[in-house]
Design brief:
Layout: E1 16-17, E2 21-25, E3 29-35, E4 44-49, E5 52-59, E6 77-84, E7 89-99, E8 102-109
Parallel strand pairs: 1-6
Antiparallel strand pairs: 2-3, 3-8, 4-5, 5-6, 7-8
Length: 110
């Protein structure tokens, strides 16, 4: 006789979006620039592990009145981007700034 157990699996559906991202190299730095307008302090997390950069966060949805939308392209909710960096960077040489809707992460090359 075969026996089996039944387990309930809870799956949390999260709407993830991916902001437009540029990656470029200067003489001294590798730079990741992301378009994330509408973010606030504390909405973004940056993590560097070896050559993997993870940027995650959440853009809060503005209160919407009941309208009949004809086009809806502005993403809100959680996002997460994992980037395999093309070269080694110094963990101590990272600078991030958010200005005019763009997050710019500059990482000093080894």
């Amino acid at each position: 006789m075969l026996s089996y157990s039944t387990r309930l699996i809870s799956i949390r559906h999260v709407h993830l979006w991916r902001p437009p991202t540029d990656i470029y190299e200067t003489e001294t730095h590798l730079v990741v620039q992301m378009e994330i307008a509408g973010m606030r302090d504390g909405d973004v997390s940056i993590l560097l592990q070896d050559r993997r950069l993870t940027v995650s966060g959440a853009r809060h949805e503005h209160a919407r009145e009941r309208h009949a939308y004809h086009q809806m392209e502005i993403n809100s909710g959680e996002f997460k981007i994992e980037i395999e960096l093309p070269l080694a960077v110094s963990p101590e040489g990272i600078h991030a700034e958010y200005e005019d809707g763009f997050l710019k992460i500059a990482m000093r090359k080894f």
